Amino acid sequence: MHFDKLQKAKITGAIAISIAAILWGFDGIVLTPRLYNLDVGFVVFILHLIPFMLMNVFLFREYKYLKTFNVDDYITLLLIALFGGAIGTMAVVKALFLVNFKSLTIVILLQKLQPVFAIALATIMLREKLQKYYLAWASLALLASYFLTFGFALPDFDSGSNTIYAALFSLLAAFSFGSSTVFSKKILLKYEFKTATFFRYGFTVVIMFLYLIIAGTLFQFNEITPLNWLIFLIIAFTTGSGAIFLYYFGLTKVRAIIATICELLFPISAIIFDYIFNDQLLSPVQWMSAAVMIFAIINLNRRNTKSVNSEQ
Questions:
Q1: 257 in Cβ contact with 302 (< 8 Å)
Q2: Which helix (H) or strand (E) holds 297?
């Protein structure tokens, strides 16, 4: 009986992570790119403001921690919001806007490089031991990402194509999300995920509000179309905070390597959605590069999980 319950929990966790991954793929290909008529910073502000307002209905008791956080907690949460919320999200939204529905899958796939940066940053910031396998798998993933973006051609800054700039913003997003992962590890040692998520969104709203005031783009509400509002609400309830809670609920039920495999539905669904909605397909070289990059990332995660478990 206990075994059956354990198996059901694992299956439930795997399904939750898989649904979250598919929702993220749908968001990156279908939803967020259709907000291109708005300023990038304003989009990121609204994408965090609406979910945070919803969270306040259910998680308002989390404000009690404002009195108990120490300076280190505040700094860590601000860094999570800065990298995972503000910089990371602005970078990926900018990348999605730049490609004009032509290379959305590439933008999504390049974000899968996040573990490359997360492991390296954990070595520097958390003083975790860098394993020998890291350089080999990380180098293979980065090399594959080059061919995924450019094929056999050299980067051309003068052609007017935005692909290379979108790729750079995607890499910035991967680095930022990787940084946020490292800081999240630290805060989750002390607080529950719901607490960290609540303040991540809250602090991101504050950061983006200040950014928009400085940039002078805060008052764009009159430019939001009915379609924009619909997309914002769909993201808020599904691919935004909803998918994050599904993902972390799943993580409590399954091992990290199972989660990594389930997460493959993110790039796979992105490829499928890009074909269905935008009639875009990767070239043979890009297909091969995507497969190699994902294979390298899986091995990077698998080996890293083993090394962490062996140290505990």
A1: yes
A2: helix 284-311
Contact 92, 170 (CB under 8 A): yes
Task: State what percent of residues in the chain have pLDDT above 70.
Answer: 92
Q: pLDDT tens digits for 189-238?
A: 888 888 988 999 999 999 999 999 998 887 888 899 999 999 999 998 88
Q: CB-based contacts of 3: which residues, under 8 Å, 6+ apart?
A: none
Query: Which residues have CB under 8 Å from 146's CB, separation 6+?
Result: 289
Helix axes 40-59, 88-98, angle to 10 degrees: 130
- Ranges of each domain in the chain: 2-311
In terms of Cα–Cα distance, which of 141, 87, 104 is closest to 301? 141
Q: What are phi and psi of 103, to 5 degrees?
A: -135, 40
What letter does residue 275 receive in the DSSP assignment?
A: H
Question: Is the model's pTM score more than 0.90?
Answer: no
Residue 185: predicted pLDDT? 80
